[in-house]
Amino acid sequence: MAGETVITVVGNLTADPELRYTQNGLPVANFTIASTPRNFDRASGEWKDGEALFLRASVWREFAEHVAGTLTKGMRVIAQGRLRQRSYETKEGEKRTTIELEIDEIGPSLRYATAQVTRAAGGQGGGQQGQFGGGGQPRQQASQEPWSTPGSQTGADAWSTPGSFGDDTPF
Q1: For the residues of 120-171, what is the DSSP string, one character each?
Q2: pTM passes above 0.85
């Protein structure tokens, strides 16, 4: 959307994502990402930590269940999302404002770790859109997806079939 503040944050989770369900049964995962800048101090000849930014983040629906089942405390992540400002009043009548990150994409950073990725059952395309892909149209079946194995009606993953495509430039 126009006018939204989209940012990318790289940092570590301060705790395991907290998975909860709204009164309507909608899953939501909340967590905090700590991003600490490091600068080289020429005088001492060593790296120094700057002041950490603690950014509260949330993710919704099936995406929330994936995050809660995958990410854990201390894990370095790369997150992209939209900043949201929320104002509220405390029980004592004080007005407060908080800035939170509504996650669009998140995953583990592979700079200092490795990861094994598995496709979630039923999670092909669609993102946070659920069964429908945003325009009210049902998602394509795996055999109709442009990235599935050509001619495959079984929904096999093309990425798991090494050598099935040439290295020639397609244009």
Answers
A1: PTT-SS-GGGTTB-SSSPBPPPGGGSTTSPTT-SS---GGGSTTSS-SS---
A2: no
